[in-house]
């Protein structure tokens, strides 16, 4: 039987990364949990063995159940009737299989019936689920909502909801509204305290809510009357069994059709406050969205993995002029670039997840030493920096790789009978939801402007100096970094509009250098990794030169004003 874990040695290799020993030791409280829980590992090797076995189970379910249902789920989709959602039959079978396997509590503490695995393993599972069906990945990964309850909820809230999620209760993040998309501080769903019911009551409309008829909801609502900004927003936990929420409709989407995207009406829906009033958007939702962006990074990598495998298989089977098309330079060079983008995205994905693990695990401890506090701050800084970069780069690469997979198929790739057609549609949303690529640039740009990104790249440079990755590669990477430093200085000297105009070039340039270093440092593991590193370095070098030229050329203030004026006045920029 196929297994999406066992057939991909790049996944298992993540468990041997040097940072994993620290991550696992932190997660297991120095392996003291084994005194209280029989399932807890006694040492690092014991933990890795457990992770390996569970990932094998996940890989088997992804290949044998979720992937097998993907075509029918895409065709059937979910249904809405009498204000309730019914999953596609294949989606329901997927959910039931994972529930029976006990995998929904993957990262939750053992005291709440979870497996207490690190975020790295959750990301790995999400990547495999997305490879099988990107739409179902949304339902699977939304269990990450439980992290917000665990981090910020009181003990009663934790005890009430976390064990249920570990047993398969579905979740949703109810954030956006018809007039509040990326601008969440404009959310106006109203929350009022009811003395009679001893609960908050929610009234209003939410739109574009993924898995909108979930069992447990985290809802952003305005609790402070007379406010119109983020300071008046709080976060609430809602249980579907309490009533008061109706699904108005399911959106008809281009892709990820197995994931119901809903418009919801809240009518005196009872809810419980999560954490403190007024911190809903400022603290809790921002943490929630960072987790979602990490998940979308995993989803993007899973889509790329599926698309590349389909393209390679087809290129070897499809014969033209008497030979497989995989023998044509135009095709195998395209496949090489697809592999490099996939491997580069995966490298950034797991680097980000490792920093998230260290930051969150240390933040949950109450007795940090000075060294641990410094370690937590460093990990948090890099997790916050890499998360939007990951979402940006992996989402864009996912679209490019899916596009190229259709191209390899030729006309057949345009036909629904073939899986690359679905993958192409599914990939499109990865640059849109949980903040568009443009919003990720805004989030990451401050790290380029402040020098944090450059400093991290210099740290990679120092790490690579002691590795046998080749003198020429080191020289090229150092030259790229020096050029990036000059680009940062040039943009810093520009005015506000010009800085924003060039922010994407700057962020993507830095991200490509980071990815190139990560791939180069991994290039000794096998020949395929070395080839991806080489191909990616060539791509990054060429694209960074182009970005540097664009920043040097500028696009002066007059040009920017004319451009903005043209489109504002004439709509399409044409007479």
Structure explained in plain terms:
It contains 18 helices and eleven strands. A hairpin with a 2-residue loop joins strand 10 and strand 11. Helix 5 (119-132) packs antiparallel against helix 6 (134-141) and helix 9 (280-317) packs antiparallel against helix 12 (419-427). The model has no long low-confidence stretch (mean pLDDT 94). The strands form three sheets. Strands 3, 4, 5, 6, 7, 8 and 9 form a seven-stranded mixed sheet that branches. A two-stranded antiparallel sheet has the order 1-2. A two-stranded antiparallel ribbon has the order 10-11. The protein has 575 residues and is of the alpha+beta class. The radius of gyration is 24 Å and the shape is globular.
Structural features:
575 residues, 7-stranded mixed β-sheet, 59% helix, single chain, alpha+beta, two-stranded antiparallel ribbon, 18 helices
Q: Overall 3D geometry?
A: globular
Question: Spans of 5+ residues with little confidence (pLDDT < 50)?
Answer: none
Q: Approximately how much helix is present in the residues?
A: 55-70%
Global mean pLDDT: 94
* Helix segment tally: 18
Strand content: 5-15%
Structural class by sheet pairing and helices: alpha+beta
Summarize the structure in short.
This protein is 59% helix and 11% strand.
Please describe the topology of this protein.
Layout: H1 9-12, H2 19-27, H3 44-76, E1 79-81, E2 84-86, H4 89-100, H5 119-132, H6 134-141, H7 145-152, H8 155-166, E3 171-174, E4 190-194, E5 199-210, E6 216-222, E7 233-239, E8 245-250, E9 261-274, H9 280-317, E10 319-320, E11 323-324, H10 329-363, H11 370-409, H12 419-427, H13 437-450, H14 452-465, H15 471-492, H16 496-521, H17 527-553, H18 557-570
Parallel strand pairs: 3-6
Antiparallel strand pairs: 1-2, 4-5, 5-9, 6-7, 7-9, 8-9, 10-11
Helix pairs in contact: 2-10, 3-4, 3-5, 5-6, 5-9, 6-9, 9-10, 9-11, 9-12, 10-11, 10-16, 10-17, 11-12, 11-13, 13-16, 14-15, 14-16, 15-16, 15-17, 16-17
């Amino acid at each position: 039987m196929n297994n999406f874990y066992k057939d991909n040695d790049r996944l298992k290799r993540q468990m041997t990364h040097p940072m994993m020993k620290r991550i696992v030791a932190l997660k297991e409280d120095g392996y003291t949990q084994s005194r209280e829980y029989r399932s807890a590992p006694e040492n690092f090797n014991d933990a890795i063995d457990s992770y390996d076995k569970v990932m094998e189970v996940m890989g088997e379910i992804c290949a044998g159940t979720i992937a097998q249902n993907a075509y029918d789920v895409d065709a059937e989709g979910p249904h809405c009737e009498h204000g309730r959602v019914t999953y596609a039959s294949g989606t329901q079978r997927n959910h039931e299989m994972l529930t029976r396997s006990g995998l929904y509590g993957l990262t939750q503490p053992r005291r709440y019936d979870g497996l207490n695995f690190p975020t790295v393993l959750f990301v790995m599972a999400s990547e495999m689920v997305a490879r099988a069906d990107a739409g179902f990945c949304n339902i699977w990964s939304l269990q990450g909502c439980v992290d917000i309850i665990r981090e910020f909820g009181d003990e009663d809230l934790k005890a009430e909801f976390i064990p249920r999620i570990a047993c398969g209760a579905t979740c949703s993040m109810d954030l956006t509204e018809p007039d509040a998309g990326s601008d969440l501080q404009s959310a106006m769903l109203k929350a009022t305290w009811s003395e009679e019911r001893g609960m908050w009551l929610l009234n209003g409309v939410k739109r574009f809510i993924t898995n909108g008829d979930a069992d447990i909801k985290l809802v952003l609502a305005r609790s402070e009357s007379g406010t119109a900004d983020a300071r008046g927003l709080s976060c609430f936990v809602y249980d579907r069994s309490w009533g008061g929420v109706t699904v108005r409709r399911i959106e008809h989407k281009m892709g990820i059709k197995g994931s119901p995207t809903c418009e919801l009406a809240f009518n005196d829906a009872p809810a419980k406050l999560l954490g403190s009033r007024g911190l809903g958007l400022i603290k809790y939702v921002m943490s929630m969205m960072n987790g979602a962006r990490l998940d979308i990074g995993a989803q993007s990598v899973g889509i790329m993995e599926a698309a590349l495998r389909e393209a390679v298989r087809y290129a070897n089977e499809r014969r033209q002029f008497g030979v497989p098309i995989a023998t044509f330079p135009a095709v195998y060079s395209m496949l090489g670039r697809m592999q490099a983008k996939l491997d580069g995205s995966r490298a950034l994905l797991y680097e980000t997840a490792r920093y998230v693990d260290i930051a969150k695990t240390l933040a949950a401890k109450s007795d940090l030493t000075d060294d641990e506090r410094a370690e937590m701050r460093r990990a948090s800084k890099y997790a916050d920096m890499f998360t939007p970069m990951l979402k940006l780069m992996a989402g864009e690469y996912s679209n490019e790789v899916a596009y190229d997979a259709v191209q390899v198929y030729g006309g057949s790739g345009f036909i629904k009978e073939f899986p690359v057609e679905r993958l192409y549609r599914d990939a499109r949303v990865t640059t849109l939801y949980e903040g568009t690529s443009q919003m990720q640039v805004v989030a990451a740009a401050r790290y380029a402007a402040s020098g944090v990104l450059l400093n991290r790249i210099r740290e990679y440079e120092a790490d690579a100096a002691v590795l046998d990755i080749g003198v020429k590669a080191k020289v090229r990477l150092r030259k790229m970094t020096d050029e990036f430093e000059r680009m940062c200085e040039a943009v810093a000297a520009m005015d506000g509009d010009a800085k924003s105009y060039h922010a994407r070039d700057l962020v993507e340039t830095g991200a490509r250098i980071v990815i190139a270093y990560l791939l180069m440092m991994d290039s000794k593991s096998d020949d395929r990794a070395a080839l991806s590193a080489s191909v990616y370095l060539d791509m990054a070098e060429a694209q960074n030169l182009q970005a540097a030229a664009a920043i040097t050329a500028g696009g002066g203030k007059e040009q920017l004003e004319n451009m903005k004026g043209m489109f504002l006045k004439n709509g399409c920029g044409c007479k």
